[in-house]
Structures are given as C-alpha cells and as structure tokens.
From TrEMBL:
It is found in: Cell membrane. Its main location: membrane. Keywords: Cell membrane, Membrane, Transmembrane, Transmembrane helix, Transport. Belongs to the binding-protein-dependent transport system permease family. The keyword Acyltransferase does not apply. The keyword Transmembrane helix applies. Pfam families: BPD_transp_1. Residues 74-265 form the ABC transmembrane type-1 domain. This is Carbohydrate ABC transporter permease. It is a multi-pass membrane protein. PROSITE patterns: ABC_TM1. The chain crosses the membrane at residues 12-30, 79-100, 109-132, 138-161, 198-221, 244-265.
Length: 279
C-alpha cells in the first residue's frame, strides 16, 4: 500500500502552500542572522554565502547597551510573563465563574464592560496611566509593568472564562451543593478542573502578548535595568543605520524559548483552542 494517495498528496501540497507565508519570514530571519554584515545587500532569500554563528554571541553580549544585559532582559521577560499569566488565571477564572453563574443585570453590565474593554486601545488612557505610575513610584519597575499587563489582559481572560463557564452544565455543581459543599469548594474542585482547556488558551494568548510586547515595555520601563527582551533587541536599531544580522540574531534568540515551550505543550495548546472554539 502506497503512503500517498492522490488526495493525500494534494492535501499535503496545499498545506505546505498555506504554510509558506508563515515559514518565509522565519527563513528570512534565520538566514539573515547567519550572514556577515557585508552580505545584507544581496537577495534576502538567498542562503548566506559564508554562514556564521558569531552574530548570536555578539547579540547576547551587546543587547541592551549599558543599561541591561541580554540575560537580565530574558529574566525580566520570563518573570513578567509568568507572573501575569498566574495573576490572570487566579483572578480571571473566579470572576468569569461569578459572572456566568449570576444572572443579574449587574452581572450582565459588568460583563458588557469587560467586553467593551477588549476593543478600547491602550493609547486612550496611556497618559493618565503613565502619570499614575510615576506618582506611585511604579514607573520603571517590574511590578508596575506586571500591573499594567494584568490590567490590559484581564478583559480577555474574563471574557473567555465567562463564555466557557456559561457553556458548562450545572448538574455537577448542583449535586455538590446538595451534598453540602461550599461555593469555594465547588469552584476549585469541580468547575475549575473542567475549564483546563480555556486556561491553556488564556495562558498562551496572554503569555505571547506579554513576551512579544514592545510598546508597553518601552513606555513604562524604557531604558532601565528592568527592560524586557523586545526593548533589549531594539537597542540594535541605530539612528542612521542598523546591523540587520545582529538585530535578527537577537530576535532569533528571543524566539527560542517560545518554540521550546510550545514543543512541550503543543497538545494542550491545541486542545485548549479547540475546546474554546467549541465552547
């Protein structure tokens, strides 16, 4: 029996064609990171004539300039991402459960406000928020950055959790309530385990936002020792010229942790997005 049939061959070719717009930029980034500075004037899609890995060591040593090292920026991004995801799950799940199980007008109004917050750009309140962070001493600190990210991503977390909890049947919760279980126990031991897929979706969506964000980080931590990876990589952009192999080598290093994490949790991520769409 042949491995490929006419239909399977057509399907695989179609998938490769559909993946080309995603793979082409990755190819461009990696090949440029392996070039010497003199090779950047040729075709961007041609393989490097003399591949070199020296750009990666240079990027690790020079990113961030005199304010923050690449390793410190990597640690800052990791701490910010993990902390924000934990806070969103810890606060978003109970909030979504309460909004889903209470059918009052106040709950509907609060949920509508969270939904409205999804479409409002951060630029609308950026100046008052920055003034507040400066007056409270949180500007330029990792705690302040985490606070801003948590507030920005909380509407998304509450929106996803509320929709998923509304789709869950209440039979198990009602049975536990008859047996004398407290509301907190019902939530932690019955409802929360049933929404693991949406928890994975919330973690991935919000985690990627925090890890890749440049605008919020450059505004609230800027050129300090609390700078995150995108800000550190941006230090390679010059006013009059840019060393593209060095810049893209730094971007590749910043991409590696995300790819490694996804390799370990890809099954949970796929189940999370599938369940969220179904819910």
């Amino acid at each position: 029996m042949h491995r490929y049939t006419r239909w399977s061959t057509f399907r695989e070719v179609a998938l490769w064609i559909a993946a080309a717009p995603v793979l082409a930029p990755m190819y461009f980034v990696i090949t440029t990171a392996l070039r010497t500075p003199g090779e950047t004037t040729g075709s961007p899609f041609a393989p490097p004539a003399r591949p070199t890995a020296g750009n990666f060591s240079r990027a690790w040593g020079q990113a961030g300039g005199d304010t923050v090292s690449f390793g410190q920026a990597l640690l800052n991004s990791t701490l910010a991402t993990v902390t924000v995801v934990v806070l969103l799950v810890a606060a978003g799940a109970p909030a979504g459960y309460a909004l889903a199980r209470r059918g009052s007008r106040l709950s509907s109004l609060i949920f509508g406000l969270f939904t409205l917050a999804l479409i409002l750009p951060i630029q609308l309140g950026l100046i008052p928020l920055y003034v507040f962070m400066v007056e409270t001493g949180l500007a330029g600190t990792l705690a302040g950055l985490v606070l801003v990210y948590t507030g920005l991503q909380m509407p998304l977390a509450v929106f996803l959790y509320t929709g998923f909890f509304r789709a869950l049947p209440t039979a198990y919760e009602e049975a536990a309530l008859v047996d004398g279980a407290s509301p907190i126990r019902i939530f932690t031991q019955i409802a929360l385990p049933l929404v693991r897929p949406v928890t994975a979706a919330v973690a991935v969506l919000t985690g990627l936002f925090v890890w890749n964000d440049f605008f919020i980080a450059v505004v609230f931590v800027g050129d300090t020792d609390r700078a995150t990876l995108p800000v550190a990589v941006y230090s390679f952009v010059g006013q009059f010229s840019t060393d593209w192999p060095l810049l893209l080598a730094g971007a590749t290093i910043a991409l590696v942790p995300v790819l490694l994490l996804y390799a370990f949790i890809q099954r949970s991520v796929t189940q999370g997005f599938t369940s969220t769409l179904r819910g």
